Structures are given as C-alpha cells and as structure tokens.
Model the fold of this input.
Amino acid sequence: MKLTHRVKEILSWYESDNPGTKANLARILMEGKLGGTGRMVILPVDQGFEHGPARSFAPNPAAYDPRYHFELAIEAGLNAYAAPLGMIEAGAATFAGAIPTILKVNSSNSLSTTKDQAVTGSVSDALRLGCSAIGFTIYPSSEYQFEMMEELRELAEEAKAAGLAVVVWSYPRGPMLDKAGETALDICAYAAHMAALMGAHIIKVKPPTEVISLDAAKKTYEKNPVDTTSLASRIRHVTDACFGGRRLVVFSGGEAGTAESIVEMARGIYAGGGNGSIIGRNTFQRPKAEALKLLADIIDVYKTQA
Amino acid sequence: MKLTHRVKEILSWYESDNPGTKANLARILMEGKLGGTGRMVILPVDQGFEHGPARSFAPNPAAYDPRYHFELAIEAGLNAYAAPLGMIEAGAATFAGAIPTILKVNSSNSLSTTKDQAVTGSVSDALRLGCSAIGFTIYPSSEYQFEMMEELRELAEEAKAAGLAVVVWSYPRGPMLDKAGETALDICAYAAHMAALMGAHIIKVKPPTEVISLDAAKKTYEKNPVDTTSLASRIRHVTDACFGGRRLVVFSGGEAGTAESIVEMARGIYAGGGNGSIIGRNTFQRPKAEALKLLADIIDVYKTQA
Amino acid sequence: MKLTHRVKEILSWYESDNPGTKANLARILMEGKLGGTGRMVILPVDQGFEHGPARSFAPNPAAYDPRYHFELAIEAGLNAYAAPLGMIEAGAATFAGAIPTILKVNSSNSLSTTKDQAVTGSVSDALRLGCSAIGFTIYPSSEYQFEMMEELRELAEEAKAAGLAVVVWSYPRGPMLDKAGETALDICAYAAHMAALMGAHIIKVKPPTEVISLDAAKKTYEKNPVDTTSLASRIRHVTDACFGGRRLVVFSGGEAGTAESIVEMARGIYAGGGNGSIIGRNTFQRPKAEALKLLADIIDVYKTQA
Amino acid sequence: MKLTHRVKEILSWYESDNPGTKANLARILMEGKLGGTGRMVILPVDQGFEHGPARSFAPNPAAYDPRYHFELAIEAGLNAYAAPLGMIEAGAATFAGAIPTILKVNSSNSLSTTKDQAVTGSVSDALRLGCSAIGFTIYPSSEYQFEMMEELRELAEEAKAAGLAVVVWSYPRGPMLDKAGETALDICAYAAHMAALMGAHIIKVKPPTEVISLDAAKKTYEKNPVDTTSLASRIRHVTDACFGGRRLVVFSGGEAGTAESIVEMARGIYAGGGNGSIIGRNTFQRPKAEALKLLADIIDVYKTQA
Amino acid sequence: MKLTHRVKEILSWYESDNPGTKANLARILMEGKLGGTGRMVILPVDQGFEHGPARSFAPNPAAYDPRYHFELAIEAGLNAYAAPLGMIEAGAATFAGAIPTILKVNSSNSLSTTKDQAVTGSVSDALRLGCSAIGFTIYPSSEYQFEMMEELRELAEEAKAAGLAVVVWSYPRGPMLDKAGETALDICAYAAHMAALMGAHIIKVKPPTEVISLDAAKKTYEKNPVDTTSLASRIRHVTDACFGGRRLVVFSGGEAGTAESIVEMARGIYAGGGNGSIIGRNTFQRPKAEALKLLADIIDVYKTQA
Done:
C-alpha cells in the first residue's frame, strides 16, 4: 500500500524515530475511511476503568462485550481502537490484523481520592497483543504529576526502542485548577505542549474553552492575542503549541452531547488543523446503528474537506 | 581539529573523567564563533516546559517549531543547544552533527504547587540522539532538594561512564528563601558550589545580586568582604566558589531585558571570569534578526576581549 | 611495607571483614606521620557542602581549589583525606596513590529545613576514584534517621563486598535534643555505639561534654558514675561504647578555636584512648603554614606519646 | 558547523539509524581537509596486531609511540583514525575531541594458523574513549566466517543503539580462495555487499583486480560485462554492489608501493565513485614529512576534483 | 606518600585510566626497595598450578605454605606478589596492606594436552581480597589464543572500571612455534605488543633470544637491523614494541639458573630499559636466605643504577 504524500509528510516530523515506530504510525494513519488523509478518528474504551461498567455500558448493554468495540471500530472504518489490557486481550486474536490497537497502559478509577493512575500494562503486553502503540495518561498539575511523567518517560523509551508509537492523554487537573481551568485554552495548550516535550507521537487533549486560567499567562495572551471566540482558532492555538503543528493532535469528544454538537465540534477541530477525534462514550453508549451514523458523519467532516 | 591551548587547559581540570567525556566537553568548547576561547554561549529552550508554550513562544510564533531553535543556535554560531526530549527528537536527525546538544533530562512546570521536577529523559536517550551532555536542574533549599540531588547523582554517574558531560542548572528556591534570596550573592555561590561538589562539568546559575541572604553567612562576608557593588566581582566570587575557577560556569540571562542590558551583563560575566552566557527567552522571543544581532553582540563581548 | 604490631591488633578487631577491607584500613593506619601507631589525623573537607563556600573557604581563599586540600593532607603527613564527589574528582588523578581518600557519599546543606541528607556518591565512584573508604553521615534522633540508616546499610554492605572501609559520621540532632544535648556525653556515646552497631569501621563523633541529656539515661549514670569532668574520661566512655575499645573512633575538632585549645583537645582524646582527630575547618581556614604547624603539633601529641 | 549538501545527502542513505549514529557519521564526514566533500581519508593502525610491531613500525621507529598516529592523522587533516584498544587508550585523553576515532574491536595476528579473530574491544570501551565508531573485520570464506559475522551482528546492534557508527573491514580469505581470488573483482564486490547487508555504515575492502574468481559468477560477468581493465570501472562495480552507491565505501592502500602508485590508485577510486582511502602502512612507515606529502597528494585527488 | 617524578611520569602514560587504576599502579610502583624508581621486582607463584606442587615446592618445602611467599616478598622488599586465588586467599588477611597483590585470574596445568587456560578468579575476588591488579596469561599462537584474548578483554574492562590494574603474561606457544620460536626476539616483541594493544598496564614476557622465528618478519629485521647479540638491545626492542617504551614491561627469570646468571640478566633488562623482573622459581625454590640474597642483588642492579 503506497503511503500518501500527506502521511509521508507527517512521518517526516518524527525524524528521530526508528522505522518500526514510523511503520506503526503509518498503520494508524493509513487505516480506515480516513486512511491517507492525515486525519484520524480513534475509538477509546477506557470508560469502564474510569467510571465503572454501568456508567459506561448500561446505556447500550451490547458494549459490555469487548468484541463489540473491535467490531464498532472496524465497521465504522476508524483508524485505531484504544483500550486497557483486559479489553484488548478479549479480542486481539479474533481481530488480529483487522485494526490498529493502542494499549492503554495506565488507568485511574472513580474510587480513588487521589489524582493518580496505576500502570496496568506494559510494552511486552503491547507487543504480544499486536498493538501499534501504547497509550498513557498524565494529569499535569496533579500532586502526582511528576511520578506519572517519570512512568511515561520509562515506558515511552521502551516502546520506541521496540518500534511502537506513544499516545499521550494529557488531562490537567489538580490543586491549581478549578473545573473551568481544566479545559482553559492556556491550560490545554500547555498540557499538549508538555506531552510533545515528553516525546509523544500522538497527543490527546480536550477541546479548549475560551477561559484563560493561569494568572501568569494572562499578560502573554493580552500582548499576543488569540481569537478565543471560535473553536477553530482555539484548536489552532493548541496545535501550534505542539511544535508548530508538527505533532499529531486529536481531541476527545467531551461530555455526552447531541450527535449534531459532536459533528459540529469535529468541524471546528478540522478547521483549526487538529488531526482528528478520539471519541468513546458518545459512540459506544448509542445503539450501534446510531453510532455508525454519527461516526460516518464525523468522518465525512474530516474527509470531504481533506 | 586541533584544540587550543586554553581548551586543553580547561580539559585538564576534569582529570578524573574518561576521554569520552573530555571529547564531548571539547566539542562544546570548540564549536561556534567562540570555539577555542574557553567562553561559551548556549541556547536553552526549556521555557515551554517551565512556563507553557504561549508565554514562551507567542511573542515570536516561529519559535513554536523546534527546528527554529536548532537553526538559531547554528546561525548564531553558538556552542550548544539545550532542550527537553521532544524538542531534541524533533530536530536531532536534520541537524545531526551540526551543533552539540544537551538533553535536559528533568523538567518542572508552572502547574506544579511543589518545587520538584520530573525526570523526563535518560542517558540512553542522550546517546541515541547524539547529545554531548545531559542537563539536570536542582533546586537547592527546596523540600525536594535531596531527592533531586539523588536523581542527579545516579544520572551523572551513568552519563560519565558513557562518555557524556553533565551540565547542572542550580536554582535555589524553597522555604528559607524569599525572592531576593534566590539570587543573593551568597546563595548563588553556594548553589554553584554544590553543583561542583556533585560532579557537574558545566554549572549554570543566575547572575548574583548584592544581597547576602543567609544570616549564618553574613559574619563571614563582613570578615572577608567581597566587592558586591560590581557584577564582575560578584561573578568572580561565584567562579571562585566553583573550585577556585576550575569548573566551567555559565550564567543565565535572567528576566527579559533590553538588548543593551543583556550585553552589559555579558561584560560583567566576562570581566568576572565567568565562562559565558546561557540565554534563552531573551533570544528566541525576539524576531530572528534581532536575536542574531543580540547574540553576535554578546559573542563579541566574549571574543574581542578573549 | 610491614604492618606494626599495633595495626595488626586493630585489624584483628574487624574479623568478619574481607582482606580487601582490612587492606584499606591498613592503608589508612599505615599512612603519614602517625602511620603504624594506631592513631590517625584525617582531613575532612565537606564544609563547602554543609556551610557553603564562603563560610568554608573565604578565610583562606587558596582553599577554594580542591588541590589545596590534597596537598595540605600530604604535606602534613595525615592518614587520609575525606571529601564529597566533586572535590575528590578534581584531584584524584593528580594525587593518585599519594594519600588514602574517603569518598563522602552523602551530604546535607545549610539551605535545608529538614535534618536529612542526599546520597551524592556511590561505591562505584569510590572504586573508580581509588578511594579506600566511603564516608556517611547519620543524624540519630532526626525524623529522617531511619531512612539515613537504611541508606547507610545498603551502601556499607556494597562497600564491604568491594573491599572498602566504611567511615560513619554520627551526629545526633532532632526533636528530642536541644543544642546541649547534641554533644551530651550519653548522646555521643549512644551515637557512636549505633555507628558501631551498623558495622562502621571508623566512627566519627564530636567530643562529648559533661551534659547527660536523656532523662531515661540519668539514673544509669547516677548508679554507674563516669568521671565527666575530664575530657579524657569522657572520651574513654565513648570508646568503651564502641565495643569496649575495639572499633576505631576519631573525634572532630569542633567549632573554630585557638591552636592551643585544639592541641589540648587532642591531648584529651589521646589520654582517653581515642584513635585520633578528624579536623577540617580548624586547619584549612588557617594560612597553610599555620595549619601545617597546628597539624604537626596535633600529630606530636599522638606520636610522641604513642 | 553547518553540514554540506553532500554530507546531508549521504546521511539520508542511513535512514533507519538514530540521530546519534548520524551525528557520528557527520563528525567523520565533516572532519579534516576533505570535510564536507563526501570523500574521506582514514588512518588505520592495526598493523601491529596483524603483522607484529617490527614489521609495522621498524621502518619508522617514531611510529612505535601511539601518539605519533594521532598527530599524523590530525596534521594531515584526515577524517578519522582507527586502531585497537591499547592504541586508542594511549592517546584518547591527550587528543580528546581533536579527531574522530574508530575503535577496532576485533583483531587477528600472524601467529594464528586459523583465519579467525579475537574480539578485543567493546561498545562500552568505544563510549568511554569517545570514539565515533567501532570497526570490525570479517573474513568472508573463512571457516570461521559465520562466528565472526555473528559477533559483528551483536556488536553492531549494540553500537547503533548507543549512537555509534559501524565500520566493517571485509577481507575475503579461506579454503575456496587462492591469493588472486582474495582481491578478485567478483569477490571484492561480494565481500563489500555482505558488509552492507550486515548493516555496515562504512565498508572497507581492497581495490579489486581484473580477476573473476568464482566459477559460478563467471557466466554472469560474461552476460553482463564489466569493464575490468580500468580501476575506476572496477571500483564502480564494487560501489554498485553497496546498495547502488548508497553506502560509504573506502579502499585500503594495499601492499607498500611508491607514492605515485598510491596517488594513482586514489585517482581510480575517485573516478569510480569510491568514498576514499583508508591507508596505513603506506603512510606511517614513511618518514613523517613524506607521509604528510603523500597524504596531501591523495587528499588533493579527492578534493580538487570534488 | 609523595610520588616521585618518575612514577608520576609513568602514570601519565595511562591517560585513559581512572584514578583508581592509577592509584593501584602507584601502589605497586611506590612499594618496597625499588619504590619510586619506576623499576619493579615482582614475585609470581603460579608454578604450583602450572607444574604441580612437587616440581614447584619440593626443593624448598617451606614454600608449600602460602604464607611463605607473602613473607618472602615483604622481607625482600618487592613491589608486588602475584598468585592464583587459593594462594591469595590463604594469606590475604594476615598480610592485608603489607604488599600489593596481583590475583592471577587464569591458570593452566601440566595435565592438559591443549594450550588453553581456565579462568580461575574474578574481579570481585580481586576486590574482596584487596588486590591491586588482576593477572592474565595469553598464549599467542595457540589454537585457543582468540578465546583467551576474549576472556582477557572482558575481565580487563571490568577490572579497569573497578579501579584495578591489569597485568598480562604474554607467552607465545602453538603450532607455528618450536621451542626456540617461543622466546625468539621477533616473537617476544610481538607478544608484548599484543598485550599492550589489548590494554595491559603491565606486560610480562620472557627475555628474548637472538632467534628471529617468523619467516615473514625476517626481511624486516634485515632491513631494520636490531643488535641481537646483547640482551640489553634485545630488551630495548621489546620495550620499543610496547608503545615506544610507554608501557611497563617486566621480564620473567626464565628457567632455573645460577644466582649470578639471574643477576646478569637483570643487568641486561636494566640496560635495555625494561621495568624489572618477575621472578618465581629462581627465588622460592632456593632456601629463604639465599633467595633474599639473590633478590637483594637483583634489586641492587635496578636501584644503584636508577
């Protein structure tokens, strides 16, 4: 399969990586209906760990079965499917070679009182399960942020040496940030930038709001204004923060919303130069047909305008 | 390339180091317009991690792209370029062999409420990326200072065995120090001395002010007065504290200032026997032409008087 | 070089140690003007770390240069020189084989608000630098004492396997002890005993005062009185506490004093059966000629009466 | 130091290598009088191991001293100096940073009755000595060839991970080859190709003669004739065999010859697209002035026509 | 103990070694009656392993006891004592610190039909026994030479990292060499050179005879004649072969001979610039008084003329 010019250009950004890592990035970028466009839609299913099974799957009980998600991602023509160890183990043989997978190697849960995560998977796991990447979440600003970053450093070094890609979920939370601060424009951009600095190949952040949270940053934004009123320009600011647009950045779908609101968000991400959507609850909690329809609409946003 | 007498003399200070480490120090000291003089100008770009991307790069958006900094350092004829993992990865192949690099292997950020840092790079990373040195920041006086020192100890031992040099940023901060104390003369000298004691090859501290901060030290300074009124004599005191001038000591540019104030500071560093400037924000936040002009002026200070 | 009867007798105390450790103890005991007497004078230069460079070296600026201390120890005919990593690295090749060195592998500093230390050297460092021993400080009674003891345990075990000796600085300080308590007779004896119990080959404590600090100990001292009025008998009590005199115990010179007071203290240490003096500030802060004179006088105390 | 377009083009051939290896190749290619041209002259001094000290150095006794060879390579403005462990150890600190070195990590000798070699250096040695590459000799056709290839594989993998380059001397010898066969055109091309296949970055072979040695190959050469009468076209055939000219190939100077014959050979190598000469005996066995003259003439061949 | 100018000069040859290795070389060079002269007499007692106990010790049964050899070396004022594991273990504690020891870490025996050796000691053994160096024998030309060299390489790298010195016995034997060839001038020089190339700090070979053994070498010796008629000029040729005299070379006493013949040989070694004698059988097989007399006479040769 010949890589498109755009995918080759994207791979050239990762100039220090070995061909194995490049090949795995290429697999993700060339897969599915968006294959070759440089845009991606990824299905993440770590909700069960984060929020518990009922909050995750009761709205659509078919989704209790891990095979459901592989099938959803494949039928929808997505680029990759990301999940924790058990979810991948439960389908990796059946769907071997059918879709790139991302092994989520750390996880938090709603029963924790601390903003930390457990490492729940390894690079060896990712290799034996045929995954293309590991996924790791950091919580910048958490009192555990430095421990999480050090875990990421170690796992990322190992993953890269083994030819895997590294996907980082960068979700700010902690004593300095109120709820609004967690998705503030300056904070999202900062979180994305730190993931890039730590060597992430694909960066996942939440879509930023108009808020500027950090006092120390306000002066900068006054002097160097960003149009905060449009999602597209806010997305542009975040992708700028990722090495001037030379890292893949995808945005989560956020809280459950209407199909139209989600598609609208994709339009903003697209317009701002984001590389795509990573969208879980908003798809697997819907009946499958609806989910496929929604995903097709999102893909259309990224594709028809590619 | 034949080493100058001065560079050979400097290498002789590092008598316990293996030839690999000496060769990497030589590479840094022989590079660029100051090559061979024993003086250095280094470009550090860890601002993105420390202060966030907008505060670092919005004043000069071209600097969002990591390649910009490699180019700036090469065009300006600097001795080395220092940055965290992702920044180095994003240009290390394109600029392989073009300028010595220093992999900054720990990083803090403005979203932290503690005076600690995360280890974000390794000696293996430095080797695979072709770096000449690792860089590490300690915060003497921080409640995490001992942990940071122990991380440094371990990384430095490994780096030296692999023939790399070790650059230590020694930035005092913590419960015993108010803002003025962080750059007080006695504190800067102490911070520099501790870095030397931990085996640093190159020591980076802030230019010291006239303040004497530690009560316990005041008597000493009264009995053994240092001329605190001139920057040159304060710099001299700091380099004395680094093994009587037998360790390389470079000084940060400090807060954003006018070009003239920065060049003036270089004059003081030069006159006091400091080994050079490590200057980030004051260059990459300026338009490139201005930055090149400023760096040329700083280099002239160190060079014309060499 | 034939060992003296006295040195052989001392080595026999360390019957569980391997010949490598014994050889390194022999090197220290056979070196210098006191070589063979079983008494020692050691030069420790960790003041720079503990108190900062100006408080340590400004009174005698030649001492900023690490080579100064090697030379002082060699010219004075001392038994060993102890210092942190950077100080040893800066002279270990020039003075290779010229005097036994003790690598101080942990260090505190005056900018710390906690009574803890950082591990700043390793057994591998000691081997590559040709040291005869590692040195480690514990602060019995500190809230970090157990962590420090556990670090000591691990390093001491490793050092002994590699044929190195272990020197322990045992300096009580912490919430239960006021200033007077830190050098109280019962506390000094207790601190020395704990160092012996942890497997130290050479124990360094401060000269004890007449104070009995621990309430729980007072009854014992009343029942079993020690002549606390003479330094000699207090020293005897401390050496008794070190396995009935079967461990090497040396005493620090304490705060800066007159030459005569320091020589007088050596007389007390000698008379009480102490194994010698470990004396830093009181020598390297004096002009070299004075320091050599003072050290010669101290050595005379231990030697002429040997 | 800005890389030339040609050196960048050469580095692009090594697309799977990490930036560290590329930087070390760049160091070699940018050094000396041919720096930047893509052509190289390398000084190899492994003759002492291979042929004994008198046969190597008696004609020019100054060459017994390892420092002589560092100086010769530096003064002549060569690209690199290659030698076994002891030779590098004896000068690596004095000449740290002055010229790229290649640690020859295996060695044979004239007292062996088998066509094998001993591994006599390691990647760790290369790092601690500041080398840019390891060098390894294989004897294709020897009864020990597979053992040697397996040793190379292991060392090369380790070297590449540590950011070093790999130089392979490929010298066919063994039961199938008579003396003429060892430098036959088909055999040289085959030996060079195998080195390329094993992942060598720089390949060293002997200049090929007009002989076609392998019966099985003769038919091919009849069907697809190579102009064997000119050295240039034979060199072209060998460089073609190294990935169509996309690997660096250098040629040994061969047996002792006249200065003119050696320069003439360089002309052929140049014309055939070879990347340079690796020339030992023919330089260090001459008086230094003669050797410098000869090397200058060889360099002129590669340079003036570059 | 202040090192002499000559010993400092010798240490400067070993510029790539760490201070630990330099200190151990200094210990050997500063020990005994020749301490400081740069000349050495070493007692090796590996005969028991090589020739069996009766052939070694029956002529002087006191020598069955390992302590005898420590005492002999100490009383004679030698520089070091070399022996296999068991011999060192049997006296290392009693004689700890009394004389530098060299742990012979491989051994052959007369019951072998192959010219190989077993590795019988480790670097850890050397450290726990307080040895200053490891000793290793290679048999250049043996069919096992490459295996032995590879064992040496690995042990030497480990020893150097731990601050030990490496002594290599280079004894040619094998299918290409008849008895005369084993001590032929060209072969001795070659054997010594190979030990230097493998990184030996001290090289032990047999005194060379007038024979030139290797056909390939004869032409060289005709063209570049060595005065083979005097031992001194033959010794000079061997030391030249060891980096132009910049490695320590000692010569074995050879077969049992008269006291006068052995002293005469020392005169030749001295005159030819050899660094001393390593002499076993010829001392420990004599009654102790005779042995001490002989060693005193040998030492006089090296000392009075120093």
Q: What stands out?
A: Chain B is about 45% helix and 15% strand. The radius of gyration of chain B is 18 Å. The domain at 39-304 of chain B is CATH 3.20.20.70 (TIM Barrel). The mean pLDDT of chain B is 96.
